[in-house]
Amino acid sequence: MKTDQTAQDYLRQVLAGEPDDDCPVRRTLEILNGKWRTHIIYELCKKPFCRFGELKRALPRITSTMLTSTLRDLERLGIVRREQYNEIPPHVEYSLTEKGRALLPVFFEIHRWAQRYLGPEAAGPGPESGD
Amino acid sequence: MKTDQTAQDYLRQVLAGEPDDDCPVRRTLEILNGKWRTHIIYELCKKPFCRFGELKRALPRITSTMLTSTLRDLERLGIVRREQYNEIPPHVEYSLTEKGRALLPVFFEIHRWAQRYLGPEAAGPGPESGD
DNA sequence: CGGTATCCGAGTCGATACTG
DNA sequence: CAGTATCGACTCGGATACCG
Residue B11's pLDDT band (boundaries 50, 70, 90)? Predict the structure, then answer.
């Protein structure tokens, strides 16, 4: 499998002496870490842009506080773009940057691992029809 | 690129209505989440097995408490295997299970993203093109 | 050698109330 | 509509001390 080959290659890099203090994997995990971050990125994947209220409706359990805070974090990290329209009524549009969209392959790889080792059914009623 | 294609495929799954409450990606992220987890998995990748003291030496800043606790968590999650030898002197050997080793492709994909968007050397804002 | 027990500070998450 | 401010519960990680 190609992926395994590349993973082996990566292992070799690790073995070559990559320090763990400035580990890019850990840093990325910390970026993704946070109860709502992936959920919000998910939602923003579905459309070219999304308004605050739309996100709030899509994520019924999130509070305004958390939505704002997470959105700000993601914006600061360069993953989400915020565009404000000061018309009447005012509104804001959130969208994913290229950096944010590039997270999709990562999510996909995680998803594959989860399917295999966490179990497809435990992972929810995904559209695994006949597959 | 093949990976992009599959990621697109995955996006379609998400769009198909995958709920976010039982999201496998989030669950996996929570498994990986923890200051020392990836570091320990890293170390265990380097050798077929590793003793407690070896791990402690490889991760100088970790305390016994955290090492034990993280190892136990990882064991409970089926990622790490613990084998105890009650000889004199007694010792313990830790190793990665297949489930644990299968995390490598995930790490690799995260690593690729980090290289590109976190920058190989610095935490720069990545190659943002007019997207 | 390979841990366990306990305490504590810092950070995360959520509820509530209020605003331009 | 799209937030901000504040407070408290809970969890995580680290320090310290001790054990089979």
Answer: confident
